Amino acid sequence: MAVQAGKDLLVKVDMTSDGQFETIAGLRATRVSFNAETVDVTSLDSEGGWRELLVGAGVRSAAISGSGVFRDEGTDERARQLFFDGETPDFQIVIPDFGVVEGPFQVTGLEYGGSLNGEATYELSLMSAGSLDFTPAAVA
């Protein structure tokens, strides 16, 4: 895989619950993490005393965080409203040369900041709120 520009990692939100996604504007830095808890089923009968994990068990989750500047009134307003309403709309996370993750996320953190001589900034945190679909990137 070739080196990718960070700007190509996109966070998109379904703006009107009609399946049309728009990139959340103004994000300068974005981070995606995938997590899977394990279920330990080790017993005295475990071969060689090695730990055993229950296949397919445990909770899987995804977390997204981003920070940036205000650039687009529509997506800024949508993110703010999602937080206050506690909604879990579909998001798309486009990861270059990896694929697209799509599914419901909840805005779990929204922070605003700014300095006297600088621009207003925000930080956004999302947590998966249901089953996620993954579509691998097309191989060229």
Automatic annotation (TrEMBL):
Pfam families: Phage_tail_2. InterPro entries: GTA_major-tail, Phgtail_TP901_1. This is Phage major tail protein, TP901-1 family. It comes from Sulfitobacter aestuariivivens.
